[in-house]
Structures are given as C-alpha cells and as structure tokens.
Design goal:
- There is one protein chain.
- With 341 residues, the chain is α/β, with parallel strands linked by helices.
- It folds into 2 domains: 221 residues, 3-Layer(aba) Sandwich (Rossmann fold), CATH 3.40.50.1100; 110 residues, Rossmann fold (3-Layer(aba) Sandwich).
- The protein contains 14 helices and 10 strands.
- The radius of gyration is 19 Å and the shape is globular.
- The chain binds pyridoxal-5'-phosphate (PLP).
- Pyridoxal-5'-phosphate binds next to helix 3, helix 4, strand 7 and helix 9.
Length: 341
Amino acid sequence: MSAFGRLDRLPRLRLGHAPTPLEHMRQLEGRFSGLTLLVKRDDCNGLAFGGNKVRQLEYYFGEAQAAGADTILITGAIQSNFVRLAAAAANQNGMHCHIQLEERVAKSDPLYRESGNVLLDRMLGATLHSYPEGEDEAGADANLEAIADDLRAQGRHPYVIHLAPGHPPLGALGYVEAARELAGQLAGEGLSLDEIVVPSGSGNTHGGILFGLRAAGIGARVTGICVRRDAALQTPRIARRCQQIADLLEVDNPVTDSDVILDDSFLAPGYGRLNDATRHAISTAARCEALILDPVYTGKTMAGFLDRAAKSSADRTMVFIHTGGTPAVFAYGADLAAHNA
Ligand SMILES: Cc1ncc(COP(=O)(O)O)c(C=O)c1O
C-alpha cells in the first residue's frame, strides 16, 4: 500500500479548513521577473488564527479521541502557536487543555510575556503551567507526564503531546497530507514545482512535506530555513524525522540524505530573536503582498525565500508555505513598531 493509503487509515480529527488557498504573490513576481512565486496560505486554515500546527494537531487529536482522552497536555515556548491551537482544538472537542510554557527566549518585555499567544491561551481558558528551562525537551516532557499523573489520580483521562524526538511524529503526518494537497493544486494549475521553502523547527512541517512530496513522486528542492537550531544539528534531525514517518506508515523511506537541505543564515541571534534580514522580509511581505508574517518563524522563512528567489534563474516555480504565527506579531510589537515607525 502507498504512503498515502496508509495515511488515510490512521486516526485523524478534522480541525482546519482544507485545502488552503495557493495564491500568486504578484508584486513579488514583478520584482523577480520570470519566476512564478506562490504562497500556500496555511495561515488561513480557520481555527483560532490558524497556522501549520492545525494540520499537525489533527493526528494527535485523532489518537487522543480514539483513546477516550478528556484532557490534552502540551508544552511550548511562551509565545508558542502550537499550545494556543491545542487549547482551541480542545475546546471545540469538549476537552480541557493544560499548557506548559517554557522559558526559551530571554525576554522580560511584558508584551512578550502576556500579549499575543499568551493572551489567547488565557482567553481560551487553558490551565497554564510554567517550566524554567527552554532547551530541555526531555525534561519538559517528563514534567508534562507528572502533571498527567496528577490528573489521572483525579479521574481524568489525559493525552500528552510530547516535544522530544523519540515519540511517533504524528504531527508530521499533517504535512505529508499537505504535500498531497499541494501536489493536487499544482497539477490543477498545470504548474510543476521547482522549490518549496519552509520553516524548520521541530521538523514536523519540513520532514512531513519533504516526505510527502517524494512519496507523491515530486523531486522539487525543499529548503528548510532554520528557526531553532543550526544546520549541523537540524540536518540529522530532519533525516531522522523522515525515517520515523516511514516507520510510522510502514513504507520505505523515499527521502535520501541529499534531499535534506537546511539554511541557517537567518537564525542569528537565535530562536525567537529578530535580525535585519527578517525585519526587512516582514516589511516586504506586508507592503508587497499584504502577508502578515511573524518574527519567530515565517519572517525568517520569508528572508530565506527572498534570498533563494534572488539566486534563482527565470522560469522556476517556487512556493512559500505561510505557516501562520500571526498572534506573535503583537507580542513582538515593540520590536516591530520601532522598525515600521
Ligand atoms: C507559525 C509556525 N511556523 C513554523 C513552525 C515550525 O514548524 P515545525 O515545528 O513543524 O518545524 C512553528 C512551530 O511552532 C510555528 O508555530
């Protein structure tokens, strides 16, 4: 059975609107003449400001629902989009959500700590916990497990969405599915894909879409823009992620080592911290295409996309995946306002 046949057999709870639009970025196409530049609007997939994590949560919630869970536990950075969307999905499905917020970014700005996604977490009624570390994925998971134990003792049925590698990458399946969707849209428009540019954080988006494109027989370049770790650390992580997807789907891995391409030129000074190229990319996207990008993920990815477009020959078709993250714009309001004054 094909990878997609296997995918269709796994539990999935539909949370988002799909297919998401695939649109031309006409003003940018005018700047880079000869290139076809498209944006896949995964920021427009419906649930509570949307974003890539909606697709990923569909497979976690599928498993949670099948297990009879009534409470979801999840961990992330203070301005995590993943946790905000988990809380939203839990509400829609009559579940409660416990969110653990990690100190991943050294920022004491009250906007960062209380606005954007944190405000939404509170509005959605999630129970918030804090975790003092930001780089201890296994520790963050262990702490979630301890909270889950307490909930079990109270008669609840918790389901933990783990952060550290080593658990089946159910979230990546959302982007295997997205690759199938995108392949169908491109075929419908008579376009053949040359390159796709995606953020590479946990690796579920990057690994999932790379695996899905290869499984669909599409050999386009997939450029992952590092947003969390440098290329030396992220490259083996993505290769492993693709193998884990193959194991989960019980198919051969169609991804080779040379398929795994990472660019960490836009990562400095680190996760969740702005740099000039990212500020410029955020302004360009807003002013040319009315695309609202965030400082943590999509702004850096657009910086990488513009760089790739500038280096590309004419007659290529490139896709930027807009993975959402828009609420973080308000949490980084002070940094962005200074640049856009
Ligand atoms: C808006 C947004 N884009 C991209 C990413 C990175 O995706 P992944 O963790 O699948 O690598 C995240 C992760 O939290 C995100 O919130």
